[in-house]
Design brief:
It contains no helices and eight strands. It is mainly beta.
Length: about 80
């Protein structure tokens, strides 16, 4: 579980990854068009979960998330 998933694309509006259950680190950054993130089966982020500079993000859905190493949220308008 040492992998890092980094998502930050200016044209991406919705991220849905129902098959993702665990990741080393997860970064959502500089995704200026992103409005929604759905990771319904994500249970563990072993390292950092970072959400930064995602101004239109209005919905984050991680209903199964139980373990996070560290959480960082910065520079988001919503």
């Amino acid at each position: 579980m040492g992998s890092t998933l980094s998502l930050g694309y200016d044209t991406l509006e919705v991220i849905s990854l129902p098959g993702l259950e665990a990741v080393g680190s997860l970064g959502l950054s500089s995704a200026r068009s992103l409005t929604e993130v759905s990771l319904p089966n994500l249970v563990t982020v072993a390292g950092n979960l970072t959400v930064g500079n995602v101004p239109l993000l209005s919905r984050i859905d991680f209903p199964s998330l139980a373990n996070v190493g560290a959480l960082f949220i910065a520079d988001n308008q919503n």
